[in-house]
Amino acid sequence: MKVVYLGLLILLLIAACQNNTSSNNTHTCQNIASPLLNNEVIFPFCVEDSYGRKVIFDGPPERIVAYDAAATEILFALNEGDRVIATHSFVSYPADVQTLPKVGDASTLDIELILELEPDLVFIFFPTFNEQLTKSGLKLLYLESLNDDFLKVTEHIRMWGGITGNTSAAESLSLNFEARIEKIKDALKSQPTGPSVFYDTSQLWTAGPDTLVGNVLDLLNVRNVGKKISGYGQISPETLVESNPDIIFTKEPAFFTGNPAFSKINAVRNNRIYITSDLLDIAGPRFIDGIEELAHLIYPNLFP
Amino acid sequence: MGNPMKEHNVTEISANHSPHSDASLAREYGSNFSYPWRRISGGLVALTIISILSVSLGSVHIPSTAVLEILSNKVFFIDTHYTWPTSWETIIWDLRLPRIVLAGTVGMALAMSGASYQGLFRNPLADPYLIGVASGAGLGASIVMLSSIPIYVAGLNLLPISAFMGGIIAITSAFLIARQYDQIPLTGLILAGVAIASFCGAATSLIMLKSNPELRPILSWLLGGFINAQWKNIAIILPYVVPSIAVILIHGRILNLLHLEEKQAKQLGVHVERTKLILILSSTLATAAAVSFCGLIGFVGLVSPHLVRLVWGNDYRFLLPMSGIVGAIFLISADLLARTVISPTEIPVGLITAFVGAPFFLYLLKRNRRISI
After folding, report:
1. Could you tell me the domains of chain B?
2. Is the pLDDT confidence value at A32 over 60?
């Protein structure tokens, strides 16, 4: 068992060390005349997947297995949720998905069940089962989860708008997302650098600047205690004490309040330990709610 | 245990007068034995040096003069009038020192349990985790970490409690399954332990796979680390570790006899069943307490006793304490590496013990070419 854990952790460490450069700027293919600007889809619509392959859509898919929380949320936000026929076990939003079949979890994918559901599109965010799925004759779209720039959420929204033929909804959702980001930027423009912040995912694991959360902390103009970490990493407690963050975001406040070594940290003394919500875990339309929540907690006066 | 069966009620015969003790035994374990105090003191000096080095180094640079003054101020109440940031005092006194003390205690407990298991089971592969303690503890911890149960209930950290409980439940089951009448056949115990370990390991994996994808915290717990070391944690484990270590230590001579042949040991006046039970219980208790706060740190319990064997031989009267010292040195150094190699990021200490311990052990093995229990 040790060996397995060791292997898994090494994989995670390697994954954390790699800078993800593979995600390209846009997932729509070059040869398609930008269908998104005139709000009119020109099928066939073409999407470039994370392998760089072109996936062509002759019309909007009707039966989508959305093996991804973010994709599911986007489809529902576009009012195209009735095209989603199945998800995976950890997708819980919106409430409508709870009654849908689940075709797998973190480790398994039930290909038999997928085949039985007769989908016309399977969307998946990790490559393990791609070969099997393609061999089974399923139409597959594989896009890695976003892990750096949260503005790419709007690219995904627009892509799904193109695929479902609902570009107008996608456009207004994206513009809303972008406008709210701009609003935060404007409000912070004239402000000096904000407080220092420690964003704890669990047991001192934290987000470096090259992650989605790290990008949010950059946007909010705060000093990220994990600034020297690449990807996600477990920070040394003495670095935390020395950095003396003004605010801590965590799911386990007692980890910080219960340890005498942390008692002199500003965030602990001033009672500025906030419990993180799950909004920033999923790079979907609600991600902006998570950003605004963070902005409000960090700057209660600027963002009431 | 109930009443020992008649055949185990051996008459006490002093080892020196046993008709079965041959010349070599008398030479090795006889009264001429002079205890190698020098080596032990040498080991203790090395332990002190590595501790001092370890308290001076970390991801935050603190000048050694400040370290010395903070320590003398805290330990000997010497007022040095030196001013340092309060964060330094916290780092030295509330972070580095408890880590070193905890790493040393855990290293010592694991290494001595390993040595006693190896002698008891006459098996060079025996380590403190052999009969299921670790996997049980891992399962207990995973259940708390990955379920909806909050880790902190009323400020109380459930993680070590559940790890400790898991370890104890696993080993008790192994005992109950292996027990035949009043005896604990060692082979049966190993087999039961291994089977329970596989079962708990599989259950842990299942929980990990079926729970939310954030697996890094539980993985790093399973690989062990001292990131949450606090004085109060040390105070909690010491009542388990100190008596256990003491019990193991006084069994040096008996382990010497036991590793010959159980039958022979019986003839030499050892209550074999009772001794086995006492040794297994103390080793397990020490191990379970050790892993409860710092996760499953591999290799210390296996490698440290063998290292002592390869360099200084097999006499358990020396092997047990020296293994403890070597284990403490090994784990304090590994933790020093874990928190400094890619600082400010921490590496699970179990990765270091495996990466450093395994090649070093193989080198020793290659050089000596003989390993016996």
Report:
1. 123-296 (1.10.3470.10)
2. no
